[in-house]
Design goal:
mainly beta, 20-stranded parallel sheet, 5-stranded parallel sheet, 5 helices, 27 strands, globular, PbH1, glycosidase, Pectin_lyase_fold/virulence, Glyco_hydro_28
Amino acid sequence: MKMPVALVWLLAFTNLLLIRGESNDAICKDRFKLDPRPHSVSILEFGAVGNGEYLNTVAFQNAIFYLKSFADKGGAQLYVPPGKWLTGSFNLTSHLTLFLEKGATILASPDPSHWDIVSSLPSYGRGKRYRSLINGDNLLDVVITGDNGTFDGQGAPWWEWFESGALNYSRPHIIELVSSKNILISNLTFLNAPSVNIHPVYCSHVHIRKVLIKTTIDSPYVLGIVPDSSDNVCIEDSTINVGHDTISLKSGWDQYGINYNRPTTNVHLRNLSLKSPTGAGISFGSEMSGGISDVTVELLTIQSSLVGVAFRTTRGRGGYIRNITISGVVLSRVDTAIVADGHTGSHADDKYDRDALPVVSRITMKNFTGEGIGLAGKFTGIGESPFTSICLSDIHLQTSSEAWVCSNVSGFSDDVTPEPCQELMSSPSSCFPGGGDTAARYYYSW
């Protein structure tokens, strides 16, 4: 006797969470041990002045240079005491802890001459950009933490220059770590980033927890955390309120991302409070040409945002977004709860391959509730590469519009209100291919 569809769905989804979740959950459970470094120095020892006016770039650079000598002796800590420490950009080193005491604020200089100009990342193409405030390249074992110390990007002038078209280069981030491994960022506040707050790119084993990230509502295209062509990433127990997307998973832009071929994969996001008045709580893409896969998202609160969950791509991107599981989402005052758009984003240049079609498939969303929602969902795939296996279950949204907008998409839904469009009410085989009487058979055929 065949099981009812709802029971098949429930059992299969449970197996999916258990089997996928075991590996992804380990990403967050495998935390760094915050043992004290055997060596510690204060930034004061290098002539720094914490009055918010004295420029401390050289002090930070000299301190890091000195601490490099302890890399093979168990590493070292750079201690930043209470005060306002104005600085331009500087680089970290391996086996380092940067510790911001309670009441300590690292202030980013608002003078562009205090920021180096560097080449674009290889997965994003040609051009120049401003180096980020805190940088690291090919590092191992880096901890950026504190007793709720603060990084203040002082981004207002950068936002004005961006909106007026006065910038010749891309805006800087607060933290950017490149091709690095074993990174922990925790117990910190981030304010007023010029662009992105935390950007791990080409990194492995990144753990971000207990951070507060905020900008004002008028901050243009300021993002919270952007895992980019990185793997084994955990982001948890944090609050992010920014002008644009709070967490955005990316993996390169058009032919540059395709050629670099470094996906974002094995990511676990959990227990997050998110707010994005002009963007999305969680977004995938639109720069995703290296691929995004095997992502578990759970226990989100998304409020006062333009979009709850967004999947973005366009013709010419190539790449894929697949094997995504999102559950336990509470939405409040969100214009559109779920968006999957195959016609979003510009191109790096005119050399992209117009036949490089992205693939969006095997997206599972379960246990969403929402009040004050405008549109429940908008799914607009690409004609030659429709979005497939979009699987919705136990989703209940109080909307001002009953409509779901669907084109070039297919999937299955169970226990969803308001009732979704016909394209998302097809056979369960669109989510659990292969048929059969058991949920396990459905799951293992994925």
